[in-house]
Amino acid sequence: MKHRGEVREDSDMLIAMETEAEKNYGSVAATNAPVQPPDRNVFSDGSTRVDFVLVWEEPLSLQVEEGSSPAHREWRQVFLQKLRKSGLLQEQKDVLQQKTKICFVLLNAPWSVLCFYAEDISLRVPLQVVPAPLTNWSAQVLSRLSVPNPFLQDVPNAPPDFYTCQFRNNKLQRFLGSDNKDTFFKTTQRHQVLYEILARTPYGSIKRGEVGIDRLLSEGVFTAAYPLHEGGFQPPSPPVPPPVFSSEADPVLALGHLVLLEKLPASGPHQGVLRREDRALLRLAW
């Protein structure tokens, strides 16, 4: 985010900010970042990752009540308290400006919460790698007819296909990657779980529809609510041949391959980009 009246670089991360008063809007001045900068999307302990962020503004002057009514404060407190009861970890960071205080509440879903809601909303997780690559029947027909396939997409280091099934906590050991709790659920799956919790948590009377973050946003109780992503992928420098590209650089290679002129007739984004579930690449790949 940017300070009103100041220029900030878009690459500045929101969460890596000081809790004391500064001339910013929750961002940090850009520095000469190393090749692999440390993860800034974490709590102050340096390890708990940030899955979702809630934002609201409060006036510094006690005489100014606009945007900070007692009802809004009560709804906000009840909502945050019920989020804590549901198991979410919270950390608040405040940024002081001339007339307002901007409050950021960082949310994290522990492993037990992720497993409970993943089973509740029937998230699909990988069970086994597909032994043989999937083939397209139309590509086979065109190949037998010796006709060029205008929809052929050949991206180096395409990720494997998986057999998936609905997540079950009592069958956790059967799923691929279950030994690593930090990477078992994808970033987008964590966002899905967090949004599900935020959407179903009441803050008042259920009969009056006082439920969920969407209603709170429309009422102006919160200014914004959004998940975080890992940031932009940077290709290695100097360029590395495709066969030895790392897994982190693969999305960049896939995107660069898709925007080539001869790939314009393609019907849509490459399946490798879809499987990686990278939203930024998905929007640019069409």
TrEMBL record:
Q: Which InterPro entries match?
A: Anoct_dimer, Anoctamin
Q: Which Pfam families match?
A: Anoct_dimer
Question: What GO biological process, any one, is recorded here?
Answer: calcium activated phospholipid scrambling
Q: Which organism is it from?
A: Champsocephalus esox
What is the name attached to this protein's record? Anoctamin dimerisation domain-containing protein
Kindly list the GO CC terms recorded for this protein.
plasma membrane
- Domain Anoctamin dimerisation: from-to ranges: 42-235
One example GO MF annotation: chloride channel activity
Query: Which domain of life does the protein's organism represent?
Result: Eukaryota
